[in-house]
Amino acid sequence: MKIPQITAECLIALVIYLVIRKESSSIYASTFASSLFLFNPFVFFLTAVWGAPESIVALFIIASLYMIYQGRYFLGALLLYMP
Fold this sequence. Notes:
mainly alpha
């Protein structure tokens, strides 16, 4: 039951990594930012213990913003419509 939420959290960390990697030339900054999100105690507790489904909605919103940032407006609008 909690596998989709955990997968969504990992994908959010990947999107954070991609955004920071594009903006910064340092691989350490992007790794640190994604690790900071992924190993945040609140995120870990909310996903692993409660199994709250908010991470799936957050994944679609963050992926939508990333697609708009990349200039793919139709795909960004489609991802925002999905949840």
